[in-house]
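Data availability (excerpt). The following record was deposited with the supplementary files.
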Amino acid sequence: MLLSADDPSPFRVLCESGASDLLLTADHAGRVFPAALGDLGVSEAERQRHIAWDIGIAGVTERLSELLDATAVLQTYSRLVIDCNRDPSWPSAMPEVSEYTPIPGNRGLSAEAKAARVAAIFTPYHDRIRGLLDARAQRRTVLVAMHSFTPSFKGENRAMQVGMLYNNDSRLARILLDLLRHEPDLTVGDNAPYAITGDSDYSIPTHGEQRGLPHIEIEIRQDLIATEAGQDAWAHRFARLLTTADATLKAAEQSERR
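Predicted structure:
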């Protein structure tokens, strides 16, 4: 067993009985390392950086869950241990190098060591999401994956403050993009700074696309949500925008059924 009794659970569930149609996930909310793995040879300064977690997104998701009365599932462990938005078979799931930083504790992992991380962290997290979605099978559900991105990546500066990510289903993305572009202070990314694909993402393709659920992946620039004040401001902004967007989407769904 990788996790001991003293290690935290691989996930937190907030507002499990929430009335909202929205279900929030945060694959990179935490930066904990299992005690058995030590620090993977990564310095504390590096473990504070975006390579280890999505800075600020836990606070935004917690506040948004409360504001919307929406169920949320937040992953606890650092994505340097295992990235819960990657298929475990991909090299990027347990990277030997993240951006330019070597991860010595991930070098040359055996199949058994990889399987232990999957069993202890990845599988319980995604099984919890599946269980919550199964329990909501008879009610409408919209999946919202919460993420944050670094202002600069490998020397490239990113001027946008927020991005909407999608793949095969752009219904909710198009509504939110229109709403965000009417916000006076924002530069908005359309499938930027990343785009969802079947070979780069796991959560939306698995829990959203395969179930046919409306969905969106939200990316907020990390420097804007590094403080509690920023997290609160962006949670309130998205509580307003998601409420409006979901009402628009729901009306369109009802119109299509007539």
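Summary of structural features: The first strand starts at residue 11 and ends at 14.
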